[in-house]
Amino acid sequence: MSATQPASTTELKEYALRKLGKPVVEVNLADEQMDDLIDEAIQYFQEYHFDGTERHFLVELVEASTLTFSSASTGTFTEGETITGGTSNATAKIHEVTSSTVLKFKEHKDGNGIRAANTVANTFVAGETVTGSSSGATGVVASGGVSFGNIDSRALTVDDTIIGVQDILPVSKGLSSNDMFSFQYQFRLNELPHLLSAGQVSNYVQGRQNLSLLNQVFGASETRQVRFNRLTDKLYIDMDWDTAVEIGDAIIALVFKKIDGSTYTELFNDIFLKKYVTSLFKRQWGANLIKYEGVQLPGGVTLNGRQIYDDGNSEVEKLEEEMQMRYQLPDNFYVG
């Protein structure tokens, strides 16, 4: 792009320096400081600006957990049988016998029979012998031999580009002939045409919204309640995983994903971002000069870092207020 339309962090840095007077004026900033401030500005832009994120469909397959033995098992395990740890008393159901040293399992329970305790501290332990309930086969658990899939962790793995979760699309095991007798199918077949012709769409929309809210609060086992914290990189889905999904099914989450500047270089040319970076540079420039305040240079010039800092800080505060008033999307009424 042109000099006034930056397409990278380097071009954005040079643009901001020119706005502050370079090369006519020497701007006293280190490259490391400018890089930090640009990263801070981009993070702020992605956090609050409506153009900083996009709605994205995150797709993850339901995966079984894995148990690895230190050596080949004695006997042959069978799919569907329950395995029990001789020391931990943890149990699980075999989903697939991958090899003589690797089993895929699901429906894990700790030694107290609790389904929810799926952590390394509450599972099969290294060195213990695991026995199959029907086959009688045995295997010794290897060090670090347990790896939980999302069927047992009940969470999807997300990276740090995901900053928000809006919803989980309905989880279904596929269509069957029973769907023809469901309420949704019969309603669309018999009632929806009359509803649309009568001009009652607004009532229908309001009714569906009310039903959706009730379903979220008083849902059945397949209702998707989500818990998400960006610092954990985990999206927990509170539902009955054993009945709602099967291994190999796809779970689709509607999320908000940061715009990646390395892919979409127009990010660096956003008018707000350019102003914000320039103001952050000015404030940091003033902060660097404050320690020399009052020092008289040759020729009688006196540095006034305090004024530069105050001007830059005032501009930053004004832009952040403008972000909240003009560019930030309103909060959703219901947050999962």
Question: Mind explaining what this structure looks like?
Answer:
The strands form three sheets. A six-stranded antiparallel beta barrel has the order 2-5-4-3-6-7. It contains nine helices and twelve strands. The protein has helices at 9-19, 31-48, 150-153, 183-190, 192-197, 201-217, 241-244, 271-290, 305-327, and strands spanning 53-61, 65-69, 82-85, 91-97, 102-109, 129-132, 138-147, 155-157, 162-168, 225-229, 234-238, 250-258. A hairpin with a 4-residue loop joins strand 10 (225-229) and strand 11 (234-238). It is flat and about 95 Å long. With 336 residues, it is of the alpha+beta class. The longest helix is centred in the C-terminal third of the chain and has 23 residues, at 305-327. Helix 1 crosses helix 8 and helix 2 (31-48) packs across helix 8 (271-290). It folds into two domains: 9-52 and 262-327, no CATH class; 54-170 and 232-258, no CATH class.
